[in-house]
Every structure is written in C-alpha cells, then in structure tokens.
Design goal:
Blueprint: H1 3-16, H2 27-45, H3 67-72, H4 75-84, H5 98-109
Helix pairs in contact: 2-5, 4-5
C-alpha cells in the first residue's frame, strides 16, 4: 500500500473515530436537554456554555466551547460527570432519565468550539 493511500485512510479513520462515541436523540430529548441546560446548568456554565468565574478554591465551571474538551470526552464521560459530579460540580445522580441525559449531552455538543467554523447551511445561504 502506498504511503499516500495510508495517509488518506488514516485521515478518514481519524475523522470517523470521534463520531463513534456521540449520541443521537429524538426531537423531544433534544428539547428537554435544552430546557434542563437553561434551568439547571446555565447557572454555572452560562447561557453560552463558556463557563464562568471560579469561586473560592474551586475551578471555573467547564467551558463547553473548548475544542480540546469536546474532542477528549465521550458522551458517556459527560453523562457520568452529570450523574456523579466532578470537582465543584455536584452530582445529579438519578435526577435525569436516560433520555434527559442524552438530550443534555446533545445540548453540550451543540456549543461550537471557538476555533472551529460552524458548517454553512446551504438552504440559508451565507
């Protein structure tokens, strides 16, 4: 196999791997996740998902617009953090159903990392 073909295959596989640990959900889950974020999560993470200011000795709330964070955490990682808490973030345990968690994770994924250009919707023009 030629070196250029190997490079193309490596790029293709690399592009697909992150998608392997992403969830899908129905419209109701997505809407519920957005509502949960608005009423619960945005108090610390902000409406824009960029986090906030650290208080006391705690770290600042997570910035969901950080490309490195988005790329390094699977959907299951995010669900586990929501359920068990991490650092200053409290655990929410079984407060949310699996469907709620799935919608909430999709909401977290909807925050566009700062160094990524969002895709253009061809139906809306530029």
């Amino acid at each position: 196999m030629s070196q250029s073909l190997r490079a193309v295959l490596a790029l293709a596989v690399g592009a697909l791997v992150p998608a392997c640990h992403r969830s899908t959900a129905d419209a109701e889950s997505i809407q519920k996740g957005a509502q949960i974020f608005l009423t619960v999560c945005s108090k610390c993470h902000g409406l824009d998902g960029k986090g906030g200011v650290a208080t006391g000795s705690a770290h600042a709330p997570r910035n969901f617009c950080d490309a490195a964070f988005q790329a390094s955490h699977s959907d299951d990682d995010l669900k586990q953090t929501i359920q068990k808490g991490k650092g200053a973030m409290p655990p929410f345990g079984n407060m949310f159903s699996d469907s709620d968690l799935q919608g909430l994770v999709l909401k977290l994924r909807s925050f566009v990392p700062a160094n990524v250009t969002p895709p253009v919707d061809p139906t809306k023009g530029q």
